[in-house]
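Diphosphomevalonate decarboxylase
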Amino acid sequence: MPLGGTMACEKPLAVVTCTAPVNIAVIKYWGKRDEELILPINSSLSVTLHQDQLKTTTTAAISKDFTEDRVWLNGREEDVGQPRLQACLQEIRRLARKRRNAWDGDPPPSSLSCKVHVASVNNFPTAAGLASSAAGYACLAYTLARVYGVESDLSEVARRGSGSACRSLYGGFVEWQMGEQTDGKDSVARQVAPESHWPELRVLILVVSAEKKLTGSTVGMQASVKTSPLLRFRAESVVPARMAEMTRCIQERDFRGFAQLTMQDSNQFHATCLDTFPPISYLSPISWRIIHLVHRFNTHHGDTKVAYTFDAGPNAVIFTLEDTMADFVAAVRHTFPPGSNGDTFLKGLQVRPAPLPAELKAALAMEPTPGGIKYIIATQVRPSTLWGFFSCQRGPPRLGPAPCPYRVSGRKPECLWLLCFIHLLSKEAAGHW
Ligand code: DP6
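Structure:
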């Protein structure tokens, strides 16, 4: 997809493509103490998912010939004047200016005055409770940072786009510390444990509906902050201890503790939605059937083998361990028989087909609901650092799979330019490009 309409004579100063992952909160963020700076009323903790299954890809180009900033999302041009997009752009340019002012050698190429064109695509349903804004704004922050040569912490840039986005800047298990300062400088994301820490952990996304949600997170949490006494109690008296306990469970790979707390926190978040006035309800009857299925599955095994969590939508995110995944998928297939899409019902990681044992079927005691779950995405935690490459093409930049093998993070952009240029030249020489 071209980034601009009149690219023929435009030679961009820099073109960067990056990808970013989705994160799923196990201790939920719900409620802001500062709407403009996007500062939360409680800390939160999430698991960053593998990009093979769910990711946002963003390309940004800057050129002296661009007369205005422009942004496309999933092929449609968006209003670049949106306050959150503006906040991200202004913040990244502020950081770039700061870096240039602090430069004590040759100044970096002057790109600050250039306008930017940005195009972003998700490979999963947007705004359906699958954390699309988190991956989207993390990717925007990261790509803009690369294109403007910013190397500082990007928590603030991503957070100004969407609060949960700052957690997608890191792989593995990530906390967003709420901070105390009024300027938000201490409201930052930090990795609790790396992606390699818990290799057996598996994630199943049960897509109940890919429709856009009725009440967006931003509006929903504003209403909850205004009207829910339960939310205030949760933020002040429940979450601090839960953050500490969840961190312990992750560090010790205590699945039972992790799973129980994940479910309890999801339930409390949805209870605050119900406590909001007028009430907000994100869970559908199918979501409730999934909740019952998980509890009956666990009761049958006499142990907590599977956990659910739901964000601001009806889709369930299931956490389990590798050795339980096939059995649980069999239970899901039994309870929600796929329609005509039997072959494509399960996407992502391979799951060995397993028969449903008669005792488990009896213990579930649930009438099948055909088509209740549209499809399942099987995924895991694994490496999820944001990737990117500098495209050296002369024509209009296009979105597509990033072929450059060089990881952007931790390298100087100058050095990357060289690496990617060499990479592209070697591809060209080998007749691949
Ligand atoms: C339920 O980050 O989408 O997914 O900051 O207003 O953009 P804004 O909200 P957003 O809220 C996410 C809420 C949640 C829980 C979570 O991810 O922690």
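The mean pLDDT is 85.
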